[in-house]
Amino acid sequence: MQFDVVTLFPELFAPFLRTGITRRAFESGQVSVTLTNPRDYAEGNYRRVDDRPFGGGPGMVMMAEPLSQCVTQLLAERADAAPVVLFSPVGQPLTHAMVTRWAASQGAVLLCGRYEGLDQRFIDAHVTEQISLGDFVLSGGEIAAMALLDAVARLQPGVLGDADSHAQDSFNPALDGLLDCPHFTRPEVWQGRAVPDVLLSGHHLRIERWRRDQRLALTAQLRPDLIRQARQAGWLSREDEALLATL
């Protein structure tokens, strides 16, 4: 898959693409990433890409024309009809379901905005989808783009050390959309805190039931909306409901 990232700061991506376990996806070409600076499509000696907003107000707005020329060229060089994605506070919150969809796609053109935002006329003409990381504002879309690329990369075959690792992720339908359970490793006792006995028992059915109960309890406490979704989807068993009734 091919992700074309439009950013005023392509240098921010260099360490991200070369570091950590997800680099396997980028180095192998499973997730191909190109970086394009819209200044390369701006005119004049200063390659200006922003200007003051009409109507007054603080900050600057990214101009439509350099972005339009940049995106048009990138789309012309692709063999597919790629969506154009803008990272924006008004976008849909990024979810596991969305990441799974992107992980199986042909990629997209990712727009990293800066300043007060982008000229709305460019958005209306070119953007097909907007994504948000949550109810807060970043100084630019680069961190959001890296978050999407990282989430997509780790779902590619062979990237994680254990092929089943991502099946245990929070929000995964394999776990009925619940939060993941707590995890423990050596030593068995740390600062007076012991690993739960059930995890040392070697009894796989008891361990799986304990983990399930922990997922249910944690989700009910922190994300009751996910419990409601799992219930509506018919993912909860009688044992699950019995446990939830005791909380």
UniProtKB/TrEMBL annotation:
Annotated GO CC locations: cytosol
Binding site for S-adenosyl-L-methionine: G113, L133, G134, D135, F136, V137, L138
Keywords, comma-separated and alphabetical: Cytoplasm, Methyltransferase, S-adenosyl-L-methionine, Transferase, tRNA processing
Residue span, tRNA methyltransferase TRMD/TRM10-type domain: 1-229
GO biological process: tRNA N1-guanine methylation
The protein's enzyme class: transferase
MF (Gene Ontology): tRNA (guanine(37)-N1)-methyltransferase activity
Keyword ATP-binding attributed: no
Reaction catalysis annotation: guanosine(37) in tRNA + S-adenosyl-L-methionine = N(1)-methylguanosine(37) in tRNA + S-adenosyl-L-homocysteine + H(+)
SUPFAM superfamilies hit by this protein: alpha/beta knot (SSF75217)
CDD domains membership: TrmD-like
EC number: 2.1.1.228
Family matches, as PANTHER family: TRNA (GUANINE-N(1)-)-METHYLTRANSFERASE
Function in brief: Specifically methylates guanosine-37 in various tRNAs.
NCBIfam families hit by this protein: PRK00026.1, trmD
Name the UniProt record assigns to this protein: tRNA (guanine-N(1)-)-methyltransferase
Protein species of origin: Rhodoferax ferrireducens
